[in-house]
Model the fold of this input.
Amino acid sequence: MNESVLSTDSFILLLAFLFIVGVITTRFSTRLGVPSLILFIMVGMVMGSDVLGIIYFDNAAMAQMIGVIALVIILFEGGLQTNWKDVRPVIVPSLSLATLGVLITSGIVAVAAKMILGVDWLEAILFGAIVGSTDAAAVFAVLKGHNISSKLGSTLEAESGSNDPMAVFLTVAMIELITLPDASILKLIGDFFLQMGLGLILGILFGRVAVKALNSINLDSSGLYPVFATAFALLTYGVTAFLNGSGLLAVYIAAIIIGNAEIAYRQSIFRFSEGFAWMMQILMFVILGLLVFPSELFNPAILIKGILLSLILMVIARPAAVFISTIKMDYSIKDRIFLSWAGLKGAVPIILATFPLLAGIEDSHQIFNVVFFVVLTSALIQGATIPMLANKLGLNGPKKTTPMQSLELISLGKADAEMIEYEMESDNAIVGKTLMEISLPEGSLVNAIIRNGKLIAPTGTTVIMAGDFLYILSARKNKPLLKKLLKEKSAYKQNALDLK
Done:
């Protein structure tokens, strides 16, 4: 048989094996209380040339490319799941942590790296920049499914989703200063504001265009809508990066706009994005695990340096950044302690650590190995103890309800209709009424109700209660009328609002 065919078949078999092992490890991560990213990385390290020798991989450029694509998908899914109502009250502290906090963390770690790693000041600042940000992939993965206080969870999600651009900028800027001695600091500062500004503007623009397109286009299959949405995420990153803007910031902002808008086939898009994000997360961390060689990582010199820098990062740099960045903001001491401990490191620092490798910087291999060790310790120690710390500090929120997993939405194909999900709040006008008493728009039908995690088959005498999740099949042309009815407040609540 042709050798190329054998190679292709082997690659497909290996890819299937990696995904199956990756999915299975998530079950172990839940039982062991260890973040799944640690197990994904371990799978890559074990399959690498230093242990089982199944795969030899040292292509930093390919790892970087796969990592960036994966981050785009993960940030997009995280943005879709971000509730703007929860994020809006914490946007100022989140941005403060994402900018000032990253600078403070990077600065303190840089001083420590200068003394511990024995590198020059520019390389020390480069190291600090690489590990300065909170990783979105790690935070989204650890917080998902845990009932952390909404305020703190939203703060961490918004910070981790928006601070990657800051870390990327600082890393690239330091590499320019190292490799190009005549580089202008003033120009680099100007580039920062240009990147952030373009990321913000293009993120808003592409988010609104995506919402309009998803609601206007009539595709042949409902399965194409999630693909269309994902294509917009990649397009947003590509165009923004091409124009020298922050592509990651643009993707996250666009995803928040899409996720908080009324879009066609919403649940199909959400479920597809979640599954795709898991696939990319598994692939990314396994590849990053393959890229490191355990014989280099776990030698005594790297171990000692990594442990010292990890401790400084976890107990000095991150807490200092949090306490300074949130001065005079509405956070208690317990809140700040939790935010300090929850500053997880993950894929972004490892991906950024490939930049010095590709740039040919003198101490790049030492920087990469120490960064990798810092990420492992952060994810293993901090990631595994975040839920326990939240419980000890009394910072848990109400138990999260995930009704979408209890009801499989039907595919409507070319039908000009869709299934709409709506959560009833206590002040909704139709709460307390039976379905017979509610005048739904023509062509609309309540197909199912999820109440306290259980499926209820509705009848005319079924009373709508606060907290119910209604699943309503409706003609798309009547969707605005249906939404208006569902959002209508009770007369008592409206009078109270008028008095205010």
